[in-house]
Every structure is written in C-alpha cells, then in structure tokens.
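ASSEMBLY PREDICTION REQUEST
Request ID: AP-0331
Submitted by: J.K., bench scientist
Number of chains: two
Total residues: 761
Priority: normal
Notes: Please return the full assembly, not individual chains.
Input sequences:
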Amino acid sequence: MTGLRILVGVKRVIDSAVKVRVNSAQTGVETANVKHSMNPFDEIAVEEALRLREKHGQEAVPEIVALSCGPAKAQETLRTALAMGADRAIHVKTDDALEPLSVAKLFSKVVANEKPNLVILGKQAIDDDANQTGQMLAGLLGWPQATFASKVEVNDGKLQVVREVDGGLETVSAALPAVVTTDLRLNEPRYASLPNIMKAKKKPFQTVTPADLGVEIRARLQTIEVVEPPKRQGGRLVASVDELLDKLRNEAKVL
Amino acid sequence: MLATARRRLFSAQAARWYGRAARDGRFKTLGRGDVERLRAMAAPETVLATEAVGGSADAAELEGFNVDWLSKYRGSSQLVLRPKTTGEVAEILRYCNSERIAVVPQGGNTGLVGGGVPVHDEVVLSLRNMNKVRGFDEVSGILVCDAGCVLEELDNYVAERGYTMPLDLGAKGSCHIGGNVAANAGGIRFLRYGSLHGSVLGLEAVLADGTVLDNISTLRKDNTGYDLKQLFIGSEGTLGVITGVSVVTPRRPSAVNVAVLGVPSYEGVQRAFRLARARCGEVLSAYEFWDASCMGAVLGHQGLKHPLAGEHPFYVLIETSGSNKAHDDEKLAALLEELLESGVVEDGALAQDESQIRRMWSMREGIPESLGRTGPTYKYDVSIPIPVLYDVVGDIARRLEDAGLYRAGDAARPVRLVCGYGHIGDGNLHLNIVADRFEDRITRVFEPFVYEWVASHRGSISAEHGIGQMKRDYLRYSKSPEMIAYMRRIKDVFDPNHILNPYKVL
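STATUS: Completed
Returned structure:
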C-alpha cells in the first residue's frame, strides 16, 4: 500500500457531559459559558487515522490532516487533534451557522486541494445529530462511502469496513478514495500526551475562509422554535393493589 | 513507664485479637415495653423492630444498619428508628437517656472505622428521613439543611445555583452531610476549600438528654464565646446527634482542567507539588498521587485505558479550577511543560473534555474499590510530614518480606499488595495492604508498628477517617494522656450516661 493520505473532520460541540439548556429566546441552546469539546465521534475518527498509521507505518500513511469548519474557537478542537497526533490542521474560519451541506461543500473543496484518498468523519455531531455530512461529501465527490464503521481495514488500496446493522454485522468493501464515518464502538480514543501537546504547538496550522475556497455559505433551513422535552412527572406511591387498579382505570385510563 | 506502656499495648492488642469491647452491663437490654414507647414517638413506617422485641421486621431488614459497608463490623441491634424531625430525635434520646438505652447515630453508613454501626445491641438512630434542604442564600452561598441529606444531592442542588459543596469524596452518592460533619470528613477538595471546621457555620444537635442545641448560625463571623459546634465536628456521634447543618459553599469553578502525570520517584512527586503550587497556586484544586500497584489494580478492575504510554512508579493527578479557562490553560500548560522538560515527570496526559476528566478522576477514586476487589484490604489513613510520607509503605513491605509473607509479584505469599495513595497536598497517606484474608499473623507484622511509626514522626493515626471502633485502642499514639483525660471530661458534660455511640473513640 502506498501513500494513504487521510483527512479527518473534527467539530467543536457542547461537551457531551454538559446538560444542555434551551436559550430564553427559544431559538437554540445556550452556548455562552458552556464547556465545548471535540465531537466524540470525531475523536474516534482521529484515533482511527492514528491507528491506521501505527498499523501500516509512517511511510504507508504519510499524512493525517485535521479539518474543522467554524468560529475562531474551533482552533482549540484542532489543537486537540494535533495533540492526539494529527500532522497538521486546516481551519475554515466562519461565524456563519453551518448546515451539513455547507460543511460537505467546504470539505469537498479542501479535498480537491489536499488530495487525500481517505476521509474519516464522525457519523454525526452530537449537537445537531444530523448524520448527513459524510454522505453528502461522498455524493459531491462521487466517492464510495462506508458509514457507521465499527471496524476499518485498508489493504492494497482497498477499504473494508464492518458496520453494525440491526440484527448483526455487515461487511462492505470499496476502492479508495472513499469516505468513512465512525460509529461509537470503532475504538477508544487516546489521551493527549504532554509531549504531543508540546509538539502540537509547532505543527503547521492553516486558516482559510469559505470565500478562499469559493464556497458561499447559505442557510437552507430555518429554525422556528426550540423547546425542552416535557418534564417527567414524579412517580407516586400507592397504598394497595386496589388503589393502583383504580388509578390505572380512572386516571391513566389504560385498563 | 515502658513496662506500663507495653502492658497497655498488650491489652490493646488483646482486645483486637480476642474480640471487640465487651458489652457494658450498665446499659439496659431493650424490652418490648421500651419498643412500644419508642414506637409511639414516630410514624410507624419509620420504625424497624425485630420479632425478639415485639416487632415484625426480619433480621435481614436490619442487616444494612447492623453491618458497615466493608462488612468488617457487625452489631446486633434489634431496633432501628428513622425519625423525621428534630423533635422526634429529642424525644427518643430523652427516653433512651432516662432508661440507659445505648444509641448509635447513623448517617449513610459509609464510614471506614466502624463508627456508624452498633457494636452490640445499641438502638440505631438513622437520620435518613431527615433529608430536606432548609434554605439557601444565593448571595452568600450559605446552605442550611437536615443532617440526612446525601452529599451528592446537595452538590447537585447548589450546582444549579452556581455553587459547589466544599467537600467531595468517593462515597458522595450515599454519605450524609451530618455524617460527614460528625466524622469531620476530608476528601479531595480539602486542598482547596479546607476543613469542615472552617466551612461549617452552624449546627443543630440533640444532646443525650434531649436538649436541642440550636447553633444553626449562618454568620461567617461570630466571636461570642466558646464555639461549641466545633466539638461536634469530628465527635463521631459521641457527644450528640447532629440534626441540621449550615455550611458555606464556594462558587462553582467554571473552568476545570485535569492532568495525570507519570513520575519516576516519590521525590519527583514532591518536587512536582512544589512547582504546581508555585506556578498554579491560586487555581490548584487537587493534587493526588498513587503508586504503580494501585494503578495496576484500578486499570484491571475498572476497565479503564492506561492514560500514558508506559508504566511509571508513581502517578499524580493534578486539577485546576478557576473562572477563566484561557488563563488556567496557559498557566497549567506552562507548568506541565516545565515539569516535563526538567525531567521531574516522565510523561503525562491532559484531559481534553469532560468525559476524560471524569475517567481520570475515576482512576484515583476507583482505587479503594479496586483494591477491595483484589482481596481483603487492611486500610490505614494517616497524616505524616510530606517528606517521609511514602517511606512507611516501603518499611511495611520490608517487614512483611522479612516475615516471609510478601514478595512483590509472588502470588504464593498471603500478602498480595502493599500500596499507597492519597492527598499529598494535605500530607495524608492511604496505606493499604491487600491479603488473601484477614489473619493475625499478618496483622501482627504492621500493628501496632504502623501506629508507632506514625507517632515517631508526630503524625496522626487518623487523618480523615476518624477513630470509631477500629482505632480506639490506638488513640494514645496521637493524643497525650492529658488530652484524652480532657476529652473524657467533655464527654461527661454532654453525655453523662455515655449512651451515645458507646465503645467508640474514647
């Protein structure tokens, strides 16, 4: 296998451990002063790229590039990818809200410039749960796609991916170049080590704008309202089976 | 004098080896009449009485109150009372005091020295039904609550208002704030927020004769004579039953960083601590360490991934908490760089998100449980001056080796692990010895040696766990005869009939 050049997508999202709250205007969730981190599925994507290199060697995987689209703070997420072990970072800087199609277009332009032959993305980001970017990118590029990967192997220019599907496992194979999106059980991401964090500071970091890439960011969706799910009513204790039956019949009306 | 000391020592060991303290015949054995009277003082569902004393509860229902969570101490109480109000507690104690019925107050039953379970047939007075928040001042951050509130639930309550409880410990999901105060619990926030002697502003306690001592102050400053509440903090239920607590809570930090470091020597652990204080002092919120044996146990039992690429003799968890992430990040990054470049630490990992922070903490917090799952564990919780803190681990390992009971990695020997972890910043070591079973020939090797060792360095035989039943015979290693005599006089003042938590502490 010669020259597997990997592009990994990473998105800055509200940390998975944070309890999200709807903002008072009900136009979205509260993001100010809320902890943000790398989308967990993207961490898995970075880890998988690093593992492919560890398995096949530096020569076989000469470059791992991390790409993020978003505001200035997306830099932090790219720094994390570099600290995990990616070689360089590209930041497409924009304060516009990005829908999956816009992101897929930006990625396709970067792919045209960078010429990777494998793009690994998280299957979805935990903020909008869209699960569309990988598929749209494959469509725009005309590349094969292997989504929800729980195992990835690359041999002789061929990609083999195991996917978790209802009731079992499905194995698909495709020729490179291709797009892979990662599922939760693909791997367990590593910690960013101190030596790598220090090295990351010296790694190439490139910032471009959507205009540089010739992509116009346009919103195709309009958010009308964001509301919290209804609050769960507390349980009640009943004193006897008869009372329970009575409540089921007359209050809940399920009997 | 030496002979006296030795004789005392012998009797102490005998007490430990040949059984617990004998039942004090001055206490009344609970009768059906007593149970009827006590039952009338509280709601029926709050009383658990065995058939032997006229109730209908199964012995199994009382098991959770009679046995401590490590299953090390077992009492045989026939009656558990779970009152809902301070008035009920007062009425119960008044009766027990007049009848000379011994009582053991119990919180979440998460103690480590057998202080919260009965030794014989004492009545268990559980505070679990007193679990209401009484008030919270969003400006001062002062919380007033019942003693039976669970620590973690209180932390969630104040978190929603932007504050944090000033203490945090592994048992937070079960332990009660009243028990924390009675035991003067320490834990992992101690370095930052200090002792409960500082953060507890007031207490409501019921004395043995039913007197309610209402000192539930919410004042930061109050210099009006003797500060009686301080006596109850760390009294382990021997002076009164704490029913309400007022505690000042700090602002919850909005930016938290956690790193785990691999350190080549204990010397390095200390040097890194000094540097951490010098470079990050005002945001440093925890500095914990553990050795390679602990790491092996915790990774094996918790299914956690090793945070670093290789093995190291010591690991350090360092946490910063502040209000400005960029500021903290920069300081911590500079510190970590300096530590790595100077060779004080060999490797390290910095958490990149909240779930990594939690996983790193669970390495440290999972140690007691992981050791427990490795085998029966002798636990010592001692304060020792930091420079010699870890020496005791090596000294005890050597004694066990000399006795032929231990050799590192030799599974045929009865002692499997001799390990240390703890709160470096507080000079607090948790010395744990994991064996195949609790055995006198093993115990003899390090008891009372460990206490003598600690006393010879003017340390404390109990840094944060208390005395309870476990260390009662060893109190003199940390307290002089004069001090113990005055502790007894204080006990006599608050509980003249000694009905509260007998056979413990003194």
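REVIEWER COMMENTS: Chain B is about 35% helix and 20% strand.
SIGN-OFF: pending second reviewer
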